[in-house]
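hi! just following up on the protien thing from before. the input was this:
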Amino acid sequence: MANGDSTFSEMLKGFGSMGDAADFAISKIQVVQIFLMIMVVVLYKLLILPWRGAKKKQLFDELVRLRDLTVTIPRDNVSKDAGEDGFLTEKEICFFEKNGYLPPFQLVSEEQAKNLRREAEEAFADDFEGVSYIGSKIREIEKRHGQWQIESAGLYQALRMRPFRELLRNPKLSHKLASLLGEEVMCWRSQFFDKFPGAEGTIWHQNATFRETGKYAKLQPTKDTDPAVIQLTAWVALSESTVENGCLRFLPGSFGDARMDFLYSFAQDNKLFYIAQLPFSFTYFFNVFKIILFGQIFTKVMLIFLTAAKILGEDFFDKFKVKDLEMKPGECVVFSSLNMHASYPNTCKSNSRFSFVGRCTANHVRVAPGGKDIYSTAEGMVEYELPEVGNFQVYGKDSFGYNKILED
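and the predicted 3d structure came back as:
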């Protein structure tokens, strides 16, 4: 980061403005919908917002409470000797408690990573044998708009592809997860990411319970759990990951400030009140509602990030330093999803960045108890049924029985 640059300006490298994020085609009917929403919010700002002082105070009091969170890993999480066969040492646990991630380590060889990538790409080319865990309606919409990619088609597909389940069960990884999450660890969602040449970056975001665009938190702990370790992400590079092709970026330690995650849920539950906090501009509000109503999921995340920065103040990021995480094929990084993270756009001409991700949690956490989720498509929000058996064991055995676990 150059002298004089703010952390916020460093974070925005590779991203455009709000107008750039809203630069996608919509129909005339959708334009009318946006105009109606702008009229509603203007009336709300003029007639109702002045009477909502107590609600505004409650919002900002909650934001203050979320500024200084900590994480403490129980040292008796596992009974094995520290440092043995992948289990974390005291020094490594302390590093995680301070930074919210573990540095990249070699999980499999480069050749094994290449073979796993090939298997995933071949499965996608065969449309995963017609199996879509997010339903046929979403698949049809995304295909109709040319947006059916492995990121959506590959959701939960490790439930069908044993090599990727075994990848997460590799002791080099599973023992690290057990050191942080405890004796019983499961994967509740698997994904593939193929950042092809020309692909946009993923804007900064954080997540504790993965409500996302749904109506409820997908992860609901049944024990007292620090928000930063409700779930951990195991991100495995199946290709080289560089600044040029879109590597991960972190704000180490930012799990201690969970305001962005809170605002993401608050904005969904209090849309008019949240938007009314923003200074009015017709063009700005047009773009805001265009993204809210018709943008894809990561575009909505960008909206939350940019609007939240207006509410929180851009300087709130300055206590953190951006870390770019370049990785080699076969390397893995484990991090708290409450740590703010992002990725660069892929500016290469022919080099894709391909990865596999396992999202892991302790078995005492109830996963998606509602059984449904909402997916953001080019034609609006679409509800779909989550997999009936959507979890598989990564370490230990399930003694809680809160979730359906794949038998394999």
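Residues 150 and 261 are 26 Å apart (CA to CA).
The two ends are 48 Å apart (CA to CA).
cheers
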